[in-house]
């Protein structure tokens, strides 16, 4: 039932984002209040994830391992086994909540701010730098969680493949060796992203030396997650992996894009920055965005 509700919400969130983006980009028409409603509606997804986290906490807090959802009975699990794997399940939910929903709402908030005459100039290099550090933190967290899960499974239950996998929400362990590998890969990518984020600048000089290596590592990590974490690990099970791949692709796309912006966006944005001709848009009613009244704004033709 929870999956069904989440699917309905996903269709509505995505549909609203597509319509608003198309309306602003193609027709140069947008409404600040509609964008606010879209952002608030997307944030309601937190309720669904909160319910999922609450369910995991209840399962982890159980005083018996009978029919626990994490470690199959063939492993003769203990309470320690159940609680460690369950804790990684809770951590995985936080990772995908913070990155999946965060990436979805990122563009909606950007459009909303652009339509506000007092906030359209927020998106400078320092803004994107902060977002890079935010996503880098969650990639590192995901890597650490999978490392702990994989190493514990190897030590406690032996090498894979397991006839019945360990299930920690978004992390499924059929081959613990693969879980360790993905954990190391994500940990390395997260640390590298943090390093590039800290050294980001509007001129992008430092990043230019690392661009090819970083983008190659990002692509390799994405392919590894899809082929190993979402295909090889799930192949022997009846667990659907499509929803997980949709959530992870947001993180895979958001991080390299944010790093590019952190190293290419100006340190300050002038009023003619978004104009195709370099001129400030006329202040007539036909060019005016609906929303809070204040100073003159640029057009949305080159919104980024």
Produce a short descriptive summary.
63% of the residues lie in helices and 2% in strands.
- The dominant shape is globular
Strand content: under 5%
Can you list the strand order of the major beta sheet? 1-2
Major beta sheet, specifics?
A: 2 strands, antiparallel
Query: First CA to last CA: what distance?
Result: 37 Å
Mean pLDDT: 76
The domain count comes to 1
Total helical segments? 9
Helix content: 55-70%
Helix and strand content put the structural class at mainly alpha
Rg computed from alpha carbons, rounded to a whole number of angstroms: 22 Å
Low-pLDDT parts are 278-304
Topology, number of strands: 2
H/E element order:
HHHHHEEHHHH
Which helices and strands occur, and which strands form pairs?
Elements: H1 2-26, H2 32-43, H3 45-60, H4 79-114, H5 125-157, E1 166-168, E2 171-173, H6 176-198, H7 205-208, H8 211-232, H9 242-262
Antiparallel strand pairs: 1-2
Helix pairs in contact: 1-2, 1-4, 2-4, 3-4, 4-5, 4-9, 5-6, 5-9, 6-8, 8-9
